[in-house]
Write a structure and sequence with these properties.
Length: 380
């Protein structure tokens, strides 16, 4: 009898030790570390930060443009694979891949005619997309070397900050920008944006990550997308909005219920599909508040991966990699062919500075620009 009691005591003790060790192991697995990623042409050292949570998600981010380099997510078997289009070295981001995974601003998306007026003064921007300005041209925050700070917290957190000087790219005001990446325990990456200015200006910040939830086994055409948006913004041949919103009902732009990306992407009988070469438009969320809401859900049937996108923004630019052409080779030697990745760029409306009927993107001294977006992964 004593032997039985002794055996039970040993089992209880071992279970307690095992329980304690597991808990400590889980805490230890959540981490953030820093390494050298490379150097810029002027010799400045660029850092790479690796954020890990206890479940196994890993996100690497560089302070050059705040670019997300890799981002792993689980499949239905629990295997974590990279789902983020990125390049193999820092140097490959300097030219054609500059927007991959990057922070975009001061103004994400397009500004028609590469100019806008504010308080009676006209500001001329860089023309880098035909006659228009796209993602602030060649003078955006995607090319800044950001100041980086690792935040000691329960969840791995990276704080990046930079100043876009008065006149950079043609935009007025010294714009102080702060972006915080937080990797949460439930396989979600939260991005918090904050900005202030010393002169009236316009601001529309976003992240330009490209995703392929198959783990790059195939293109994105079989991904099933739901967008919680009942309107989208039609554009002209230069992809600049007319101004009016359009109902998605009865069009290839209706993703209020799940549809495969490839199901209607080549329906060029619809003028907007023909103009965009597929999907390259802003959808306006049915929930028009600035509360954090579910804006999109993407499911990849082969792997079972699910991505939910939450945001405080009023719209999202859904882009299906229509201009990828195989000229870029990324992680593991994968060529990024047409429609090899999709973007969900949360934002205010494109060309808002020239469309007074749109929600304002003007920021004035004394005001604080704040917005948040979260990408959460799971599998089924």
């Amino acid at each position: 009898m004593k032997k039985i009691h002794l055996l039970l005591s040993v089992i209880v003790f071992l279970n307690a030790c095992t329980s304690t060790d597991t808990s400590e192991s889980e805490v230890a697995e959540a981490s953030i570390s820093q390494s050298v990623y490379g150097k810029l042409e002027d010799g400045s050292e660029v850092a790479l930060f690796t954020l890990k949570n206890a479940k196994g998600m890993e996100v690497t981010i560089t302070n050059y443009g705040g670019k997300v380099i890799t981002w792993t997510a689980p499949d239905r078997e629990g295997n974590y694979e990279n789902v983020n289009l990125g390049m193999r070295s820092l140097e490959e981001y300097f030219d054609g891949a500059s927007f991959f995974g990057t922070l975009v601003g001061r103004f994400g998306n397009r500004i028609g005619g590469a100019k806008f007026s504010l308080d009676g003064e006209e500001f001329t921007l860089i023309k880098n997309n035909g006659e228009n300005n796209l993602h602030s041209g060649g003078a955006g925050i995607d090319k800044h070397l950001w100041k980086a700070e690792i935040i000691d917290a329960d969840d791995p957190t990276l704080k990046l900050s930079t100043v876009s000087p008065d006149g950079e790219g043609g935009f007025p005001g010294n714009l102080n920008i702060e972006v915080v990446y937080t990797l949460l325990p439930d396989d979600a990456l939260k991005i918090d944006y904050k900005a202030t200015t010393d002169k009236p200006t316009v601001v529309n910040l976003t992240n330009h990550s490209y995703f392929n939830l198959s783990g790059f086994d195939e293109d994105i055409l079989n991904h099933e997308v739901t967008l919680y948006a009942d309107k989208f913004i039609p554009v002209d041949e230069g992809l600049i909005p007319y101004g009016d919103l359009a109902d998605v009902d009865g069009t290839p732009f209706d993703f209020t219920t799940p549809h495969k990306i490839g199901e209607r992407i080549n329906d060029t009988t619809h003028t907007q599909i023909a103009i965009g070469g597929g999907y390259d438009h802003a959808w306006v969320f049915t929930d028009s508040t600035n509360n954090m809401k579910l804006g999109a859900e993407v499911y990849e049937p082969k792997s079972g991966r699910v991505m939910e996108m939450y945001t405080t923004e009023p719209a999202v630019q859904f882009y299906t990699g229509n201009f990828l052409n195989g000229s870029l080779t990324g992680h593991e030697g994968v060529k990024y062919n047409k429609r090899w990745g999709f973007c969900l760029e949360t934002e205010h409306y494109p060309d808002a500075p020239n469309k007074p009927q749109y929600p304002s993107t003007t920021l004035r001294p004394g005001e604080v620009y704040q917005t948040s977006t979260m990408y959460k992964f799971s599998a089924r």
